Each structure stands twice: as C-alpha cells, then as structure tokens.
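User: ok so my PI wants both of these folded by tonight, can you help

Assistant: No problem, let's get them done. Here's the first:
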Amino acid sequence: MGGWHTQHALNSDVVELAGIYDINPERGALAESRGIKSYPSFEAVLEDRTVDLLTIATPNECHKPLAIQALEAGKNVISEKPVTLSCDDLQQMIDASVRTGKLFTVHQNRRWDVDFLAMKKLYDSGELGKIVSIESRIHGSRGIPSDWRGEKEHGGGMLYDWGIHLIDQIMQIVREPVVSVYCRFEHTTNMEVDDGFKLTLGFEGGTEAYIEVGTINFIPMPRFYMRGMKGTAKIEDWREPCHVVLCTHWHESEVIPVQTAAGLTKTMAPRDEVTTKSYDMERPQSDVHDFYRNVVRAIDGIEPQLVDHVTMMRVLRVIEASFSSAEQGQVLTVRI
C-alpha cells in the first residue's frame, strides 16, 4: 500500500509527494532511482518542516507508535487499515490527535467502491421498503497471504484485512446502533490467524447484516445481496451493475405451481413480470482520490473529516466484539 499511496501522491491534484521512508534500504534505493526522495530515517521525515501530511503503510502493530510520534511532531496522519489492534490503543491515538490539534484518520478507501455506493444509494432511497437483511461477501481462492498478514503478532488475519473494510461499509449503509454480534472463524490454511470468517450483525431497527470473507472459494457467491419488504437487489461482483427486482403486486390470484423433483409447490413458485419489475441500476461515478481531497480540505477547515474518530472507534469495537464472539462461540449483546 505504500506504493499505492506513492503513485496517488505523484498524480494528485491536492498533495505533492515529499518523499518516502522504508526500513528496507533496497526500497529506498529504488525510490531514488525513480526520482523520489528517500529519507534516511523516520526521524528525518518528522524533522522535515515541509512535510504536512504523513501516511503510515506498515504492518498493523506498528501503526499506533508511529502515528502518535508523528502527531506529536506536528504532522497530520493517515494510517492504513486497520487503524490499530485495540480500542484502547485507538483511544490513545485519538487523544494525541486532539492534544496536538492535528488531523488523524484511517485509509478507508473502499467507501469509494462502486458496488458499495450502489447498495448505499438503493438503501437510502427506500425503494426496497424496510430492509430485512444485507449480505456482503468477498471470496478468493488463493488462501491467506503468506507474508506478515498471516502472523498473529503483526495483527494478521482476514477480519483485520478485509473485514475492517466490509464492516465499515455496512455501518455506512445502516446507521443504526449494532446490538448483536456473532462471529465464526475459519482456519483452513492457517491455524494462527483466521483465513476466513462469517459475521452476523444485528441492528437496533431489526435489519441483519451478514459479512463473509473466504480465501478458498473457487466459485464466489454474490458480492452484495439485499432483501427488503418491497424488493431484492443483487450485485454479482464489483464489475457488474446492481440488479433490482421490485414487487408490484404482493398477492396473485392464480399462482402456477412449479414441478420439483419431489412434487408440486406454490409457495416457492417464481414470480413473473406481471407482479414484478426489474432493472439494472446505473453504476455510480466514483474517484477514490476523493479520500485525499477530503483529508486536505479537512486540514484546511473547509469540510468535515469523512473517516472521523467516531467512525474509526465504532468499527474497531465491532472487530473486538467479533474476536470475543468467535472465542466464546456465542452471540454477544452489545450497543455500538
């Protein structure tokens, strides 16, 4: 992700890249060969008064000490996700931000994913009526990464990796308090950290969200699936538009039974165009660099910080509750 941030800074319309620092000298030399300044130490970055904003892209357990050190040196800070590994640590980072008056946020770039934006737009429209459930899945088939993300001491595992994004997205869609958490981990290719998980969140208004990440799924299930009292929406994967089916007439005077292997059924008979209408939503326009544009405007006091401290804490509280639920093997009653 350090390389990702570097490229975005080089092409940005709101920031200029001052340089990079990496503990691996080979990466510093590579940057220099490409005309990018490489600082000799982290302290050298902090001492450079021309640096206003610092992005931390390190293994997860390093975020807290580096962020606090940078904030106290007068820098605004973006941390890669997960922002840190516990709510207590996050509170210390937030306290440092408040104490120094410097902006502190986490890189929740997937708030600009077009599939998420489509689902949020549909939810906010109320077109599906009261939402019963939302399912959000990311499926891969290459196992968990074999680097530090597969090691517990570095904050590895898929709940921290992809889960932090999917939880944040769901909590941006459903803005009510989370009142229950139930999580189950998979340890198929890695016994040290979760290489997949299944998480169910209950919201105060009755909506249920199911979040799943799998790393040995050779046939992926739909990316999003949302059920409402007036219709259903599905996104197969991020490249596809959101398909919506709305119910125009709930009761049918004559339902044609369906022949199944074990006999006839009316209850599960499919609907037709007489009682439903369907369409594909236009894909939302999105630019992920709007994250950086918001950060800069928030630093300048022009607009509020989108990924704010309250958002960061709520998501991490759900993460902590998920770990507790998986360890205890039961549903936890919460209020987040």
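One down. Here's the second:
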Amino acid sequence: MNVMERIYQGASRLGKTITLPEGSDERVAKAAAIAQEKGLARPVLIGKKDEIEAVLTKVGVSEKVEIIDPEQADQAEDYAASLYELRKKKGLSLDDAKALVCDPMYFAAMMVKKGDADGYVAGAVNTTANTFRPALQIIKTAPGIPLVSSAFIMVVPDCSLGENGVFVMADCALNPNPTAEELAAIAVASAQTARVLAGIEPRVAMLSFSTKGSAQHELVDKVVQATQKAHEMAPDLLLDGELQLDAAIVPEVGQKKAAGSPVAGKANVLIFPDLQAANIGYKLVQRLAKAEAIGPISQGMALPVNDLSRGASVEDIVNVIAITALQGA
C-alpha cells in the first residue's frame, strides 16, 4: 500500500467533516463531490448558494453536496458572538464580527473552532496569507508550538534509505529563516506528520553542514540549540543533530561520523535549517530521484488547516481533503 492509499484508507474510516470556503471554484466543487463519493470526508462547500449550485451543475456533479451560505446560515449569529469574544481584546466590535463571519474563510474557521467541522482547506483562490489569517486568529497553533510550518512526504522509488524510501522533509514552504526555537517546533510537528500521515515511527535528523562538531559556525550553533530545545519539548522523540545529510540517512556514513547516535544513518524525518535548503533539497529529490512529493502539508495548527497551491488540480484538492481529514484523527 502506497502512502496516498494509506491516507485515503485512514480518512475513509473517520467520517470527518471538512469545510471548503472556496466553494464557487470549479476545481474545489468537483473535488468535494469526488471526496464525498469516495467516502474520504463529508465536504461542506461555503459561499453563495446560487453560485455554488451553478458551478456544481456546470462541472456535471449530480449527487448532492452540502452547501452553506454564511449570509443565510443559522449559525451566523452564534459564530459572530463567539468571534467577538475571541477578538474583542484586539479591538474587534460585535458589528465587525458579524461582518467577518459572512466571509467564507472566517465562517469556515469558526465552523472548525466550534466543532461543526474537523478542518478546512483553502488556497485554490486565496493567498497563503488569506488562508491562514482566520486560522491563526481563531483556531491558533497547537499547545507548545509557536508557528505553522509545512512538510512534504517524499516517496523515493527503489530506495532502501529512510523508511524504505519514505521521508518527511520540513520546512519546505513557509518559514524562511526559523530561529532555534522555531526549528525545534518544526521538528516536533514533523514527527507528528510522520506518524499520522506517513504511518512511520519518526527518526528525526536536524540537518546541517556539520556533524557533531565537525565545523564551527553560528549556523551550526542554531541547529545544535534547536536539537537541545526539541529534546526538551519532546523528550521521548527519537531525534539527533547536528547531522550532515549523508550521516543522517546512509548507515555506513552515520556509523563513521556519528557512532552511537540513535538516528544517524537511519533518519526518516529530515529537518532543514532554513527554507532555502529545504526547498532546494526536496526539489532535488523530486526531480533527480523521480520521487513523489506529497504536500505541502501544513502542520502546527491546533486543528487541521491546509493551504492549496493556486494552481492545484482537482486531484490535488481531493488529496488534501483526505490529508486534512486524517490529521483530525
């Protein structure tokens, strides 16, 4: 069973409700219908009802997909009152809260916050900033995790390294230059992604151009500090650093460069020191090794929220719906 098959199977067992606040986008509407037909989730399209119904007809969807128009929703008053309580110390008035819950993005975030949905997926139309702004204001990050980050599950064909060719790599999309504290949080969140989505027991390597003091530099110091902080955050997590990439994933190199390390030579979760290294690294693996790149997967939120590429295909959106459902397990 490949990784996406596992994700589909796991999602289909859960019956999670995933809300889609870009319901009038043709790709999103079609993906919702496919996800519902496959039993991956109970999708809810958010937006103007007549517009969404017209789109569903246009893309040939015959089965009924739930639609909620925030401007007509029974929940709107309750959501506005709750949003006001959440944000009044930030200067939000009740009238402003009422206006905000008419925005599908804020309505979707309130559905998740109030337990009426298990997660939301957006970004096919909206920017990453617009996707996460309601989430960060309303849902917030998980306890002890100071930031949202992203990961890719990489599936490398004909590879014995990692977890038989499966790796989780982070942060490849969101945080350009994380601090040591942020890097530690990314590592802990990525380990959770490995467990829940990839179905592997994480062995986390904090990557650097140095292995165990082989080089001295402030960039190395950041990774050393991040390793220490990650151990403090998750004492039971199998994690080590700083490690060069070859020492992290190649057994004979790991044994030579970091003898006695519980991770060296067998890491399956790779934490890069910054976005430049991570983005270059995952794309090298994707292109040169012809690896499947599943993601970017958002991590670190208290409840599941995922951001799509604005170039996302229908299949991409279906996959992210399934991922979001499984993250809510």
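DSSP finds 14 helices and eleven strands in the chain. The first strand starts at residue 17 and ends at 20. Good luck tonight!
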